[in-house]
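Lab channel / #folding
Pinned by the channel admin:
"Please post every new chain as: sequence first, then the structure tokens as a reply. Keep commentary short and put observations after the output so the thread stays searchable."

First post following the new format, from NK:
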Amino acid sequence: MEVRITFATAELAPLATVGGLAAAASGLISALRRAGVEVDVLLPDYGGVELAGEERIPLALPDWAGPGSIRVGEHTIAGRVHLVDVPGIARSHPYLQPDGRGWLDNTERFLRFARAVAAFVDARGADVVHLNDWHTATALAAIDPAVPTVLSLHNLAHQGATGSEWLDVIGPRGRHYEWWGGLNPLTGAIALADRVVAVSPHHAAEILSVEGGFGLDGPLRDRGGAVTGILNGIDTALWDPSTDPALPAPFSVEDLGPRERSRAALSERLGFADDGRLLAVAVTRLTDQKGIDLLEPVVPLLDEFPMRLAILGSGERDLAERLADLSAAHADRFAFVEGYDEQLAHLMFAGSDLFVMPSRFEPCGLTQMQAMRYGSIPVVTGVGGLVDTVPDVDAHPRSGRGFVADRAEVGPVISALHRAARRCGDRRRLATLRRRVMSVDWSWDGPAREYADTYRRLARDN
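Reply from TO:
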């Protein structure tokens, strides 16, 4: 059964990339199209994107949301896209002002975008509409209830809540979005979508709890079996050590020898002696979610493992300053590189022994899969998609892929690092584990099949 999907998202790599949503959206769309699924992609027209064969389509919108139109054409990497223009949507950054604060009208901007998505569906039609996170969620207030819909939850920490004055504006079903005297885009969409999909099976269970639901556990539990989890994938063409131009030499699971050249190059880049000590890295955003502050007390202890640690990331100013101070004080064992350097990220995955990801919550996580693709063994916390992707080696000797701290606290993280040091300090055991994690299929092909099956069932049943 062939289906046509309208897929709406606030981010899409490489057109608009802020977090994991961009990579997840682009990876899923590409895999669906390879599988023959027709996908109309709707993205805000933030500006600066050139399209080949461009045409402009007008949109019929209510006065509060318009005027609106869509630029549709071919992007050299993303393929055919529909860029939605509504008042206020074009900005230098999708969400943030130059000083790092959010745009004051963010909620209104994305309410307009979501209303434009509904107008597109009304005009063009769709077998299934797939919405992503709060930015698109209020489209369901105006989409015909007969059209099957899927809502993907990438990060419940961001909900876009605003005042109740919008409830009677956003569409005929706007009252479903009422929440504690205001409007919450996700509560209404959770109630109205035919399927609610978390981005990993374990996270789908977590969000039903008071601790993991960010206040929305009740509405999610009310949906029963409509809430499911499908694990994200990664772009295995982009993250491929056998073809990666960022590496000094390609390597593969069949030929790991050249990997040592990446280790040497990384050690030199970081100012470390390449003396055989385990090299651990983190490539991350510096936010409370990612738990990088839990690694601060580890730095003075690194000689005891023995291990070196390097962190690449940007975000919270105070944390960045503390990491910079630690790097200056312990330069022989710890390095901090502020910012995001794509080339260096690839080299860090390829040249490291361990990848550290001590997240406090992690709906799916992509970097642990990227790191394993390059043979870096993950040390993670037991949350979200990390549970689904990193079975603990000591608990599962034949199938384990890394080392799991049972809580996002300093003590359990140190314990997991000690276990990793003991096992991976044996180069033979490290090589066995490295081949195991590199052999896993982290591509989008499997997840795309699950989504396609979901679309077909919804289209058939409606």
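NK: The mean pLDDT is 96.
TO: also worth noting, The CA atoms of residues 12 and 76 lie 13 Å apart.
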